Amino acid sequence: MAFPEDVLTEDEHVVLHLHPHWKAVVRPVLVLVLAVAAVVAGWILLPDGDAAAIALYVLAGLAVLLVLWLGLWPFLVWRSTHYLFTNERVLLQQGVLSRDRRDIPLTRINDHAMSQRFVERLLGCGTLTIESAGERGQSVLADVPHVDKVQTKLYELVEAHHDRHSLGDGEMRDILADMREGKPLRDPSA
Asked: Would the pTM count as exceeding 0.90?
């Protein structure tokens, strides 16, 4: 479930590619361990006989259903959730059977904030909220690993993108001077 590189533009490169924090897979692992323990305990503790065998099959069937529902599915959701930061945009993708993707160009990011509860600080994760111009407004990225560093990197990406796509004071003075002298406009990036 790797992120497809073909969604990137020609000059775009990945700076950060993250999944939600590993704490999201703790519950699926616990469900698996408890299901296996329940089946083993049933196998050991149930007496011999046809009724016990049927009970063990029912217990094993319930364990498999619980592992699929509370173990495998959350793992697949975690694995298929991508937080991708490039030099041009932030891509948020999620979905196991269907897929939702949101692209936020760096030029549209107005604000970004992070928050961490006490347990999240201990685990090194948190919530990153990106506010952008447009209809959707806010995007909330939950359980971002090293959220403080990710927020700093996002700030650096937005500033670098702004610097690459805007004129400096000296360039603007040169253009205005050329216009006053009647010279044709030139490409400031040349």
From this structure: no
